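task queued by scheduler; priority normal; single chain, no ligands, no partner chains; default sampling; output format set to structure tokens
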Amino acid sequence: MTELKILIVDDSTTMRKIIKNTLKRIGYRDVIEAENGSIALTRLELHPEINFIISDWNMPEMTGLQLVQNLKATEKWKHIPILMVTTRAVRDDIIKAMKSGVSNYVVKPFTADILKEKIDKIMGQ
């Protein structure tokens, strides 16, 4: 298993806790949190070893989609895989996210198995 340092970006404290606990259950313990896209960029500056991002779409200040577009336009971050975890299940939204550079997409609510399957698929395992 690739050693991942994961950044969870979600404005909901509860959802960050759910994702973090789910990640622990499937074997990922190195996790950092951010409340929105702006804070996520600060966390990336402070922790250049982050190599995987799980982000919500709907957040104040900077949305998940804006974060993805920002990361993909930045040389030092454009290689980081991003898993969008959101309540937005509309096909057009999924297509928009994928075109922006999201590696995969999970609709809330989700199970540990689904999260593991998506991470493994992104990481080529």
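post-processing summary
- The helical segments are 13-25, 37-46, 64-72, 91-100, 112-122.
- The chain has a mean pLDDT of 94.
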